[in-house]
Amino acid sequence: LLREKFREFARETGSVGQERVDRVNLTIEDLIDAGHSEAATIAEWKDGLNESWADLLELIDTRMQLLAASHDLHKYFYDGAELLALIAARRQELPQDLGEDAGTVEAFHRMHSAFERDLQLLEAQVQQFRETAARLQTAYAGEKAAGIQEQEQEVARALQELLEACSGRRARLVDTADKHRFFSMARDLLSWMESTVRQIETQEKPR
């Protein structure tokens, strides 16, 4: 809000001020061209006025830059807090259940693949956040620079922990699927052996 108000102030000041300065310059030039007795003094006044106007424009520009930098810094910390909350929410969405049978495990595996695809957008947001951090760190020093770096590291660490949790769940799902596949094969083999034993037992015994 402060930035917008000052931008409007700068726009109005620049427009009105330039018009007034141009009008004064034109008047001074007319006086000098007319051979005014104080032409030299008037010319000095003209130079002084134009220098003062240039100084004022520079001051306005500097103020605009400071407000822009302050806005960027506040937005950076706000975005960092938003990302941390988003990462925490995604972490909560990661289920612990691995499934009681092969069909359930397969369904969980498909859900997890979709979950990992969704995380790609979050990874891109974090990457953009880290690029902003690098840019801001060149503009600030001391405590502010340290705060920027600390926020960046916290976000990067939270994302890394989430990605590691995802990898861990994928590995557990694969292990669980392998276990159910083995049990299924073992049951089939036992069933076949039991069937074979029954066939042998029902055959006529040799005399």
Automatic annotation (TrEMBL):
Secretion signal, residue range per the UniProt entry: none
Domain of life: Eukaryota
Keyword annotations from UniProtKB, A to Z: Actin-binding, Coiled coil, Repeat
InterPro entries, sorted: Spectrin/alpha-actinin (IPR018159), Spectrin_repeat (IPR002017)
Coiled coil stretches, renumbered: 112-139
A Pfam match: Spectrin
Matches recorded under CDD domains: SPEC
Molecular function terms, GO-annotated: actin binding
Protein name: SPTB1 protein
Gene: Sptb
